[in-house]
Design a protein that fits this description.
Length: about 400
Amino acid sequence: MIKKNFDIFLDLGSSRIRAAGFNKGNVDKVIYTEQNCTSFLRIKKIDLTKTEKEIEKIILQVEKKTGEYLNNINLMIDSPDAISIGLSLFKVNDGKKINKNEVQYLIQDAKQQIQKSYPEDNVIHIITTNYKLDENNYNSFPVNESCHKFSIDLIFICFPKLLIKNLENLFIKHDIIIDQILCSSYAKSLHYKEQFVSFDKVIFIDLGFEKTSIIIYQNEQLKAFNILSLGGNHITKDISKVLNLDIKTAEKIKNNLNKNILFSDKNEDKENFKEEFLQEFENQDVSLDLIKKIIHARIDEILNLSFEQITLNEKPLNNDNFKIILMGQGSKILNDNSIYIQETTISYDEIIFFKESGINICESGLKLSHGKNKQEVIVIPKKAARTGFFEKLFHLFQ
């Protein structure tokens, strides 16, 4: 087998495909390429026809830039059909030292139960959010500690099997094997939180094409991960429906609006908008004020639903102030003047609009795959019959 010099991470977004190659021997040597492409990743209407054509271009560009045939990738995706499952495991320990093997078996059994309860989904990430020994809490595995009882809080992030199978088949057509699948929004938040280490509590709201992820960190530890099946494409659909425009035209309106004009009340800006943009549409009933109302209404709904999810996790936040980080392709239409949050029982310091690049996104996958993450439980899939029926789990922390 020819040794490869690059680790390839491909982020398959719903509106853009990004790929980066990271040189194994030289961290400063990175290649990058991207293609705009609408990929329908919702199970009820999954369609990868256009996606496959753009993937072919990505493959050629990666091979040209790395000088290597592309045989393996690490795939980063998000899905509006993804689910997040929280689970607590308990065990009586009779004053003995906590045994790592017993913890592994507990997590292994929990994973099997999740798979039985959700047969249409695959577990992508298993994350420990807390260890509790008697009345003491620990963020990471407590070594050489004794207790009478202990519990483990876990989060399982799952993707539909049908989606994964379709993606595997797409790449197999090009003789490419997917080494691992990573949740993009989780990987990004884990990477980006390093820029906010001075804050005790940080919440990421990742506004995507047809989903919004809410990821909560406290003292740099993941505490909650939630998913809403609402995203930027719902704004496009609203514009299309209310203004009686086709989807392509509605998307063009959304994507081409200047934020300063969209959220401006100046008559001069309104006139400029009419002259430079609306005049090309046959429907003369289209107005800036109406478009603003449509967009504001959907933005308010998404953000306030996100705040409801945060409220559900109010206990780990202890009602203290925290930072909210808005990211994702769908958040690009927003600015400080577009936020209209209804009254809520929680308080926050400020909302920060995080600018991310394609290389940053792919680098997030690299950091999650090769970095140290004490919360992630790594699973080795079985490769031979002698490994037994169950998959082996190892490394409660890396």
